[in-house]
Inverse folding.
């Protein structure tokens, strides 16, 4: 996927601006862009609110059919995410230009990430408190920004592309151990969505704020 993206960006850039920029100029602009994103990502990753990142309490409802349909609920609390400060640029940025704007695309990596929390699981009105540990080897993110003519850089998207090496461990189910596989599926979906939300909301907002006032000299 990332190889395809790289080829697309290079071809698109060559089509839009290949006749106007020399190889040396292209290299200069790419280095300038790389340096700017490195500074932005480093600045964001140093934020004290990121590592550890405190998860808000979450309540999730679910249902399970065992002859009859039963309803349950989990309350997740004391949650933290560590590893967000490892955010970095992954590979060279790529530029696309036309008469009205400059677009920049870059890969961003984060990881490893670890999520630890407790969850009180109620099924048919009762249940245990469990410990949950999630490990994510690497998160791949696409950063896309644009700069209108005579304008400043603006974040277009900061989108989670992939979570590599996602593993979830859960202990303490006790009498609900027979539902272990089911709860793993439930919590896997929940935490993948939560990490996606942190990336595309919290981190994206921080990166967008750092981009304000920046103008590439192209």
């Amino acid at each position: 996927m990332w190889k395809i993206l790289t080829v697309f960006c290079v071809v698109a850039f060559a089509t839009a601006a290949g006749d106007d920029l020399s190889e040396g100029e292209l290299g200069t602009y790419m280095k300038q862009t790389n340096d700017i994103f490195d500074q932005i990502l480093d600045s964001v990753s140093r934020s004290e609110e990121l590592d550890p990142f405190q998860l808000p309490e979450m309540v999730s409802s679910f249902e399970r059919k065992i002859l009859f349909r039963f309803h349950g609920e989990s309350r997740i609390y004391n949650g933290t995410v560590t590893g967000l400060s490892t955010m970095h640029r992954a590979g060279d940025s790529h530029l696309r230009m036309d008469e009205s704007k400059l677009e920049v695309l870059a890969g961003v990596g984060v990881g490893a990430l670890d999520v630890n929390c407790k969850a009180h699981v109620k099924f048919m009105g009762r249940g245990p408190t469990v410990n949950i540990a999630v490990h994510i080897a690497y998160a791949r993110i696409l950063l896309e920004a644009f700069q209108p003519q005579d304008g400043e850089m603006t974040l277009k998207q900061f989108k989670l592309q992939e979570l590599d090496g996602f593993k979830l461990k859960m202990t303490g189910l006790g009498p609900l151990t027979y539902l272990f596989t089911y709860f793993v599926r439930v919590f896997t979906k929940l935490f993948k969505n939560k990490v996606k939300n942190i990336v595309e909301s919290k981190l994206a907002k921080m990166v967008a704020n750092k981009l304000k006032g920046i103008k590439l000299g192209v």
About this structure: The beta strands are 53-55, 58-66, 68-82, 88-89, 94-97, 101-110, 113-123, 129-148, 154-171. The first helix runs from residue 2 to 17.
